[in-house]
Amino acid sequence: MDERAPHTELVVTLPPLPEPPTAQSPLGAVRYLIALGAPVFRRIRAERAIRRLLIDDQRKLDLVLRDLGKSIRELSPSLPVVKEEIALISEQEARRSTAEQSKVAAAENLRERAEGLSALSKRIEPELAQLQEAAAAATEELAKLRDAEARAIAERDDIDRRIKEAEARGADADALALRAEKLHEDQGGGDTAVTEARLSAEAARTQAASFVAERDHRQEQVWKITGPLRELEASLAAMQRQISERNAQLAQEAEALLAAQSATDSQIASAEQELKAAKAEISQRLVAVGTLANLHRTTDPRMGPLYAQIDAFRNAITAHESRISKLQAERSGFDRRVVNVALLTLGIVAIVGIFGAFGFVITLARRYTTKGG
């Protein structure tokens, strides 16, 4: 169907409404009511179908009026009757342009932030990988140095213990020699015990002295390990700080991007609402311009086809409205008095039926009760 052509008149064959009964009897009234149902229902359906055509033709008429408004704005913008509406359209177009620019700017800002995060990730991620690899190697080397330091300290401490034990033996031997000398002076006799004690003390001191060089050597080994160990610990701590800083920087940028995404979504949604409202307002204003131009038609031949379309749609809409009014009048033209009698009769029959059924149930109940007794 042509979108620019009005709907033709809907042809519907409708049964006539029944004639009311001449005799005023309840049964005749009920028969009239039953016969009335189909014609009235068919007219209601026809009325709904025609109303749908009417609504669609009104929509099409608005499209033609909008086209007329566009043409008037392009060809006769200074026409006094539409000048104010055209100015309002220009305002809405500026509003639409502002909304479109806001939407584009928001999307561009988000794109720049995303590109910035991507560039930052490309720059930082290789650094992070190198730092993490170096940190892993440093951690492994640190474990080895700590193990070597622990072994060197244990060996040094063992030698130091042996020195102290030898020195303790020497001190004990000196004490024994002194007691032996005093005993020799008091009781007399040989100095064999004194000599043996002094020899034992000297041997112990000699052994302790022999351990000192080895202990010092072990201490130097500890110092040689401790220096690089502390440097490596400091280097590893620095690498870990750098890794934390890089991760924090990436997390901060990602968080900022999420916040920007939320703000951009809100801004775009607001711009889209504004854009939608501006477009709707422009469309309505163009229809208003077309309506005013149709009421004050110009002699411009270029508007002739649009005027013809408007007339066709208005004639079709008038025909639809007339047909609807006719159908409404027809389905309202039944004999209301007879219908009221029919409804009253049906109501009485329904009440009598209800009471009859109730009495029947009571009778059955009494019969079964009597049998049971």
Instruction: Tell me the CATH architecture of the largest domain.
Output: Orthogonal Bundle
Shape: elongated
Name the helicity range: over 70%
Indicate the multimeric state. Answer: single chain
- Structural class by sheet pairing and helices: mainly alpha
**CATH top level of the largest domain?**
Mainly Alpha
CATH fold-level name of the largest domain: Helix Hairpins
User: Could you list the spans in which at least 5 consecutive residues all have pLDDT below 50?
Assistant: none
- The Rg value, from CA coordinates, equals 56 Å
Strand composition percent: under 5%
Note the gap between the termini.
Answer: 80 Å
Series of H and E elements:
HHHHH
Instruction: Please report the total strand number as a whole number.
Output: 0
List keywords for this structure.
about 90% helix, about 375 residues, Helix Hairpins, mainly alpha, single chain
Topology at a glance:
Layout: H1 26-75, H2 80-187, H3 192-295, H4 304-331, H5 336-372
Helix pairs in contact: 1-3, 1-4, 1-5, 2-3
